């Protein structure tokens, strides 16, 4: 029911635009151009029509655009990314769906094994393709999403990685797998850090630490981000926690020196 409302609003907006344009055409068609020299008549009329159309289209597209943008914003970035990917692979993807209908679980196992092998052989595009096919068969397949997010992160596709990890967190919102949730937040922090979004990365790493307060990797990353942001308070706090969690960390002394310079 709710899915059809945006479509109805869009059709109404388009109907209004078409009505106004047609109305303007009828007015323009009735223009008296008898006093315009014959050799200029066609050019002048075409220019007037063109200018009127441009003004009307701009006027109504700016109003209608708000409606389109509203509904467009509701479509997740990840969904847009996947739609594009699936559209690029539509022919082979449709074939896989038909083959999978009889024995979906077996097909997913096959695709997972193929994806792992391709990742090992650094066949990135093919691995991505297999993982997306798995998600097409099972939209709740967290393992496929994780593998896809890791693949994007390793290959510096940070926006895709971020959106994938965020989607995983939505899928896991009711999960009791605390360690896994912490790891996904950590990966999200790495993606934001690599993309230069330090404030978001710091928020992500803090979220990861809620699930694993003494994880040395999380603390190490939090310390690095705090130093980059020149946040001495957070850096000192992270250093103390890291010293307790991993006293043999060879980077501790270097961290101390960097904090002194903040």
Descriptive key words:
single chain; 262 residues; mainly alpha; Serine Threonine Protein Phosphatase 5, Tetratricopeptide repeat
Put the structure in a nutshell.
The protein has helices at 4-29, 38-74, 77-88, 90-100, 104-120, 124-137, 142-154, 158-171, 178-194, 198-211, 216-228, 232-245, 252-260. The protein has 262 residues and is an all-alpha fold.
Explain what the structure shows:
The chain has 262 residues and is an all-alpha fold. It has helices spanning 4-29, 38-74, 77-88, 90-100, 104-120, 124-137, 142-154, 158-171, 178-194, 198-211, 216-228, 232-245, 252-260. Among the domains are: 4-74; 79-174, Serine Threonine Protein Phosphatase 5, Tetratricopeptide repeat (Alpha Horseshoe). Helix 1 packs antiparallel against helix 2 (38-74) and helix 10 (198-211) packs antiparallel against helix 11. The longest helix is centred in the N-terminal third of the chain and has 37 residues, at 38-74. It is elongated, with a radius of gyration of 28 Å.
| Beta strands, count | 0
Q: Work out the strand percent.
A: under 5%
CATH class of the domain at 79-174: Mainly Alpha
The gross shape turns out to be elongated
Q: Enumerate how many helices there are, as a single number.
A: 13
Structural class: mainly alpha
Gyration radius from CA atoms, angstroms: 28 Å
Which percent range fits the helix content? over 70%
Q: Give the mean pLDDT.
A: 75
Write down the secondary-structure element order: HHHHHHHHHHHHH
Could you tell me how far the N terminus lies from the C terminus, measured between alpha carbons in angstroms? Answer: 56 Å
Q: What would you give as the CATH superfamily of the domain at 79-174?
A: Tetratricopeptide repeat domain
Low-confidence stretches: 21-75, 90-97
CATH architecture of the domain at 79-174: Alpha Horseshoe
Largest sheet: none
- Write down the CATH topology of the domain at 79-174: Serine Threonine Protein Phosphatase 5, Tetratricopeptide repeat
């Amino acid at each position: 029911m709710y899915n059809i409302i945006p479509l109805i609003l869009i059709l109404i907006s388009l109907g209004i635009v078409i009505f106004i344009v047609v109305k303007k055409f009828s007015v323009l068609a009735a223009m008296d151009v008898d006093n315009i020299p014959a050799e200029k008549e066609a050019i002048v009329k075409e220019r007037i029509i063109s200018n009127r159309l441009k003004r009307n289209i701009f006027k109504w597209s700016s109003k209608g655009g708000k409606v389109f943008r509203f509904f467009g914003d509701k479509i997740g970035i990840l969904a847009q990314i996947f739609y594009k990917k699936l559209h690029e692979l539509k022919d082979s993807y449709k074939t896989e769906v038909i083959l999978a209908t009889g024995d979906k679980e077996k097909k997913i196992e096959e695709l997972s094994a193929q994806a792992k092998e391709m990742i090992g052989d650094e066949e990135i595009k093919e691995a991505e393709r297999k993982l997306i096919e798995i998600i097409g068969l099972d939209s709740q397949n967290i393992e496929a999403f994780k593998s896809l997010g890791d693949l994007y992160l390793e290959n510096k596709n940070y926006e895709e990685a971020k959106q994938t990890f965020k989607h995983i967190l939505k899928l896991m919102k009711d999960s009791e797998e605390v360690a896994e949730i912490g790891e996904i937040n950590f990966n999200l922090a790495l993606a934001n850090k690599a993309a230069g979004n330090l404030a978001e990365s710091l928020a992500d790493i803090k979220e990861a630490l809620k699930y694993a307060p003494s994880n040395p990797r999380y603390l190490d990353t939090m310390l690095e981000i705090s130093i980059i942001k020149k946040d001495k308070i957070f850096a000192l706090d992270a250093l103390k926690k890291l010293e307790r969690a991993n006293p043999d960390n060879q980077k501790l002394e270097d961290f101390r020196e960097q904090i002194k310079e903040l």
